[in-house]
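TEACHING EXERCISE
Course module: macromolecular assemblies
Task: Read the component lines below, then compare them to the predicted structure of the full complex.
Student: A.B.
Group: 4
Components provided:
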Amino acid sequence: MTEIVQEIKDISDVEWVSTRITERLAASGDTTGIPYYHFRWKKKWLADYVAWPRNAEQVAAIIKFAQKNQIAVVPRGGGTCYYGSASPTRGGVIVDTKPLDKIIEINKEKMWAHIQSGIVWEVLDRKLAKQGLALKVTPQSAPASTIAGWLAIGGKAGIGTPKYGTILDNILEMEVVRPDGTIETITGADMETFYGTSGIAGIVVSLKLSIREMPERTDGLMFSFDSIEHACHLTEELASTSIKPVYLRVTDPEYEWRSQGGLPQNSRKGCFVLVTYDGTADQVEKGIEYARNLFKKAGGTDVGKEHYQKSWDDRFIIEMKLKLEVPTLSMQNFWMKPKNVSHLARKMYEIADKYKINSCYYMVLGAGGMVRFCAFAPSDHRYWMHFMSGKAMLHKLVKMGFKYDAKLYTLGLQNTVYLKKYQKKEYNHFKTVRDQWDPNGLMNPDKLTGSNLSYSRLNLMFTMNGWIRRLMTLFRVARNILQVPRWVKERT
Amino acid sequence: MRRLFTKNFDFDPDKIVMCSNCSTCRWTCTSYEEWGSEAMFAGGRLRMLRAYVEKNLPIDEHFVEAIYSCSVCEQCVERCPIKVPYGEIVEDLRKRLVEIGKGPYGKLGAMGDRVFHEHNPYGGEAKERANWITPDLKISDDSNIGYFVGCTASYRRPEIGVATVRMLNHFGIEPQILGTDEYCCCSPLIRTGQIVMPIFKKQEDGSKKKVGTLDVKSIINHNIEEFKSRGVDQIIYSCSGCFRTTTLDWPKFYREKGGILPFSTQHLSQFLAVKLKKGEMKWKNGYNERVTYHDPCHLGRHVGVFEEPREVIKSIPGIDLVEMDRNRYESKCCGAGGGLKGGFGENATNIASRRIEQALEVGATTLISSCVFCKLNFLDAVKRDGHDIKIVNIEDLFSDLMELG
Amino acid sequence: MLDGRMIRVVNLRKLAEIVGEDYFSSEDYMLDLYSADIAALPEMVNDLLRTKADAVAQPTSTEIVSRILKYCMDKRIPVIPRGHGTSGYGGVVPTRRGLVLEMTRMNEIHSIDKGKMTVEVGAGIIWGHLLEELEDEGLTVAAYPTSAPSSTVGGWVAAGGTGIGSTKYGGIREQVVDLEVVLPDGTVIRTAKDGKVIAQFLKGSDYVFNPGHDLYQFGFLEDERVNDNVTDLFVDSNGALGVITKVVLKIIPLRNLKPLVASFRSGQLMTHALENIVAATRPFFLHFITGDFYQMQAELGLAPKTSGEWIILATYEGTEDELAGEVEKFHHFVNRNNGIVESEEIAQHEWEERFYPMRIKRLGPSLAPSEVYVPLDNLEEFLEAVDQHFKNERYAIEGAVTNKGEVAALAWFLDDERKKISFLMGWYRSLDFIDIGLKKGGRAYSIGMWNAPLSRSFYGEKRLKTMYKVKRQTDSKNLMNPGKVFSGPLNLSFRFNLLILFAVTIAIPTVLFLAGLLVPEITNAYIPWLVPDTFSKLLWLIGLGLILGVVAIEVANMIPIGFVLTMGRPFMRLFRRIWRS
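Instructor-supplied answer key:
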């Protein structure tokens, strides 16, 4: 092993590869909070090396080295994906792109920033803010995720996406290292092979990101409603008007209660809608006025400025705030039309009640009037049946979701198993990309194009789990381990 | 879950599973910035630890290094969406490592040795502890206000002790000082996990002989009993580390009254702020510089004292206080805490150097802190990298401007 | 001994003479009123136990108390001193009938010493009145009970415990400077200086019967040296050593109070925050309520409008400057533990409500309380254990942190007095609650009558021995508040004794008779002389039964309470489950 490191070192003449077990362990994990189960799922879950390249040449060197020795290459950004996009399954070398964190140039005339791909969104945002500039789009995991990381999972729902589109819409050009080690600069339609492909087409080293002036004002409002249908309808309406919100989020009472530690006084118990506008003071005023009228007409109740501000300030950590007292968080993301969300959400409640488990959701408006709908099954993996029933519920939702034209938002490792069965079109696209650029299958293996678990096995496992849980509920031995106050459950 | 644990490294999993590995704590982390490795930031350490615990991996030197490379500044706790008590976890972890004989890292164990023999981590002789006291200082035997000098002021920076006592004298307070009866507050030991540790002595033939057991609890109880028997009900601190340890850690070791100390604790900056509010303090001289204030982690994030030092600084005539990019809850660590300076001296200086650069960025010519460790570390950085900045502590400033020096 | 000594009419008349006719009563309704504390015993218990006094006296001066005690000791009349009976540990329940001394007429404020910062009051003064009076002078007491609107100073001194202000200044033990106590023989002593009087009872060592435990033990007493100040010996002694007539308390200047309220979403976060707050700040009063408590308040529409359901109320005292620092730290540690600091109105409201936790009684309609000290470190485990243990019960817990780092955890069990059996059997909950607390390293809150078996762990070996010696020397007939502190036997009612007698008398001959009929071979082989084949033999057997019956009564009356409570608990639990629905 040391010999191989020596070999890489010889190429680069710098010490940026490690074989230490501590480094490999820390770099092999991601947000998935249950390593024990996933260690089984991911066959060789521990990488052999971790590399920290600092420029395109070093990235190319490491890829060439991997090709020569036929070992897997796993590009890694912030490691904030829930689905193991950056987790090794066949060992190999992890290319940690976070050391690629320089801002190369900021062009204020043409309003773009030329940056290296491993820079963390929040850091970039802060640095731009000092110059009176701002990012157009940011993911919800901005405090930790990197630019290229969001690109690789196909970022299209976050802050700014309803107004400015997907991350790809905001990239002007990028410098990439292909799986054969060639360094290229690409623009236009060529860039699509890097959008949402988890690095199977190569590693992005630097890119030009479209930016904007710091908006004059950013403000919004938050309302509570009696039912989910209201929220779906309103989301559709707000997404289609000329003044587009910069951020729109819908949460259900349990989600709101878990993340904020309590519901605002006198709120309705169906769902909460938060909408934010930015731009000139005038535009913001108009947007808020429009939204407020719409909300009032729909019979909503204002939850107050204070709670809005708290929720808006938490926009980057809102997903993680759920984790308090919830040792294990299972979730599934859907990319779907807002009008279909209510069906899926109601189905979720229905299954959860049957299984006697917890469930909650939130959704964020993304690009093109679509939403990212996140269904959660808060649980504790030490209570095995409860935890697995949560998984079974999410599995059921995926199966049901395709009837409502819902696609999976993040694919990564775990969701690849559904791809071939339900999303033939995307699967074929990924297959073409893989065949074209990475015939050896070394770039981020087992993601998107081939799953190391068969769908029928998974389906059988979860279906059986569901049945057993139903039986347990029937015989009154199923227990909900995470209690919520009664008034949170009074959802209509 | 029990079945998943190794026999020799049993760690409470409830604490680790709280962390969702969202990595929000990563880019602000003191050690991540220095090493750039995912094994060396709060969330990464927990991820690694979890794998060690669940996969029964043997504890190796790299693991120990990763665990000891943290400065326990708790910036991560502030950043954490759910405030995982990371500081407690890492201290507990170090305690475990010491228990199984794998810690402390590097030369940190020498501190425990010295505290055991001489009651201070610097190795000065115990009977020389009160040597810094100059004859002009007024110290009483029956005041109800005490002053906890701390080891740094007693052995390394006597001017701090002198300045503080002069300051108290200035307000007509003659504090009680324990003198040679004062033992280490045990901050460095608790931070590095040396709670209970056997002390060995090298024999002539090279073998080691156990000479005793270091027990932090007995040292702390000694200090408390001393203050109690002297009737002290308020203690003033010039050292943020001692202040933090007394306020938050001593109660855990003081069992006699269920962990409630028989006195209240006050940092010197709090003391000055109260005097200022009461109008009992008038500055004699001004300080015509652009200054910035560095929040020591032990004073700020750990105990929650942010505004008092700023109030004191702002009240100095002619001073121009500017804030660094990262201040108050977001304040960047100087790199001296948590045994980082003792274990990784060069890296600690690098970290301090970066903090000084932040101060220079906002155009400050003086960097004010209120912690002796921060000051020491900053001075090291200035000495090595030649930054053009003055490093002072609040009590130095007071003693200078009031012409007490 | 079918029924205890009734006070003879002659004695009643004499006692009335001593106290004064107006302040003496032996009428039934008065006796009912003054024979119980707030823990109303189910009526059924009255059939079993004898808990009614023979007379009530309201002495107006120390001298009268002294004379009453002298007379009663002479005539062997048990004396039960009593305040307002706001404790629920049976400390004022007359176990052997006798005379109740109601102390509330001795309610003067004798003197306020602003130099030494003490106040001397009659034992019967109500805390609320004392507080009001002191407030006029710009003073206050450092700690007072949550039952301040109705409880008496002497009552709290005798029962012991912690209350508002205890987080900083300690419980009543820390507040008492001096006591005036009338010993059973009528001697009046000041505890701060008359320690010698007590010391003389402790001379010499002897072999004693030490009853302070479930299992009777014998031990050897060493010589105990007692210094001149024996105040500590009398605080929380439940009046078993003498009648407290005057109390000298510490006072402090009236200071600014600032209540703060923080809410949390779970018990784990709240307990962690409590630990931090206690470590880093010095609150005057630190109190919490659990989510269950909140839910019950919410059902009644009384809950404060907070975000979380686990609520901490911390009150700080001091000057504005001192307060500012503490408030900042409080905010810091609440935020650290994911809590929310609530508005000032809520805090003010919660602080004003501190005396009225019993409002949730409306849900009951009855409440059964139970209280125990638990170390703050183990609070989380304790709450979890309680949660696990009482799955089928509705209850709410509140608690206050004391200056010893303990939490006085108080549980209110909802119940319905009208369901008699179920209510009686529900008693096990109070006992189990205390038991869980003890298991988690806690100790009993107060001793009274029901907790008497726990007195050894509560007072500590040494103090209990001293108390026992004093008691033996001054009150060898056990007439001063009998059955308190030193676990006394169960005193069954006359009716119940009769029942036992009849049962035994009839049962033994009947069983033997039936045995002779059903299994003659066995009885003839082993106990032919016991088979009642002739009428005279039957009579003889009935006679034997009578004798055995009397013996059975005596034995039943000697069973210590602790034994009954321990043995009976599993049955209570079982019956509770059966009768509850």
